[in-house]
Specification:
Chain lengths: ~210, ~170
């Protein structure tokens, strides 16, 4: 199977799924190419570990391939795909019994040509703060925040992925953002005079978790 | 104009805070937006929270989460392997271990056979008597002569007075 040979494939998910179910393997490749990025990003943020995210992404697409007969029954391919990825992520977190093994490797900064090294350093620091916050957040809050903020899923789509009601999604998002406010506020406050006490940054992930 | 400094972490007006969430998600109608902006003008806590949400959004867009180059190869190698192996029905239940993984040993055949025998013996011992077939059910009729006429007792469970019989 050549992952690059997807020229001339339809743009509609439904048509691709139908073609895939008829045995057209390139339709699967087209679906994979379309969704590998979002699925990997979702897993990377859920697990806060890129190596584990790669394994989970691989497992997710293998399951999609295995269960292709069930695809048409699922209303939205995207929701169905993220449901599989989400379940895999939760299983991985449960199995490893870890929430705090924060991947401290340097993230890829979306650098522009004009960025100075100093600007890149600032960006990297911001990314690290965000990742540290996500790592401290419990998975039930993390998943709604990641699906909303990184994947731009609607409330209805998040509800379908997490098997919850829309009101529950809104409520969890609300609480997750409150925790975000508590966490980020010290970083956003202006520097105080040296005589005043400097706000203590939140504790390191290994010392405790939000929620 | 100086505004009262609100030092609490959360806004006391939870409804407005919820509107703020809906606004950043693009789910707030234009009618409700006016109310939210009015609240933001007077509430420092919500303004800070708004800034936090915007800063978070900006920060997460700084990161390029690129799929590793080795990922494609690994996925398609697994799928190729899947295609080569004969397809079997996926039975996720049987893949799980008994009792949530607490029992790790396989049960020996002799123990399994003995357990099956015990279950069969118990089943035979506790079996219910089958209901008699209605087509072959027999009735007992007993005639009793009373002062006011004969009384027929037809077993099981039916008593007929002679006077009421249509003769």
């Amino acid at each position: 199977m050549d992952p690059t040979r997807t020229q001339g494939m339809p743009h509609n998910d439904h048509l691709l799924i139908e073609a895939f179910q008829r045995g057209d393997e390139f339709a699967f490749v087209a679906l994979y190419n379309r969704y590998k990025g979002p699925v990997f990003a979702f897993c990377a943020k859920m697990l806060v570990d890129r190596a584990m995210a790669q394994d989970v992404m691989q497992e997710t697409f293998v399951r999609v391939y295995e269960n292709r007969e069930r695809l048409l029954k699922a209303g939205s391919f995207k929701s169905w795909l993220f449901t599989i990825a989400r379940n895999q992520c939760l299983n991985t977190l449960r199995r490893s019994k870890r929430h705090t093994n924060f991947d401290e490797t340097v993230s890829d900064v979306d650098a522009y040509d004009g960025d100075t090294p100093f600007a890149q350093l600032l960006k990297a620091e911001q990314i690290e703060i965000v990742n540290r916050f996500l790592n401290e957040l419990s998975p039930e809050y993390r998943e709604v925040l990641v699906l909303r903020e990184y994947q731009n899923l609607s409330y209805e789509e998040i509800a379908a992925v997490t098997r919850n009601s829309v009101s529950s999604v809104k409520s969890r998002l609300f609480k997750a953002r409150r925790k975000l406010g508590q966490f980020l506020q010290p970083f956003l406050e202006p520097r105080r005079l040296s005589s005043e006490p400097v706000p203590k940054p939140p504790p390191h992930p290994t010392m405790g978790r939000l929620a | 104009m100086t505004e009262p400094l609100n030092t609490s972490t959360f806004c006391s007006d939870e409804h407005s805070e919820m509107l703020l969430n809906l606004y950043v998600d693009g789910e707030l109608s234009s009618d409700e937006q006016a109310g939210l902006f009015g609240h933001l003008a007077t509430c420092a806590v919500c303004r800070t929270q708004f800034n936090v949400l915007l800063a978070f959004r900006l920060a997460l867009r700084q990161e390029a989460i690129l799929v590793p180059l080795t990922a494609d190869e690994a996925v398609f190698a697994r799928i190729d392997h899947l295609r080569r192996t004969p397809r079997r029905a996926i039975d996720r239940v049987s893949e799980r271990r008994f009792f949530g993984g607490r029992v790790h040993r396989n049960v020996p055949f002799r123990t399994a056979a003995l357990a099956a025998l015990v279950i069969v013996a118990l089943g035979l011992a506790l079996r219910f008597d089958p209901l008699p077939d209605s087509s072959t059910q027999s009735y007992h009729v007993t005639e009793a002569i009373m002062d006011d006429g004969a009384l027929y007792v037809i077993g099981p469970g039916l008593t007929v007075e002679d006077k009421k019989l249509d003769r």
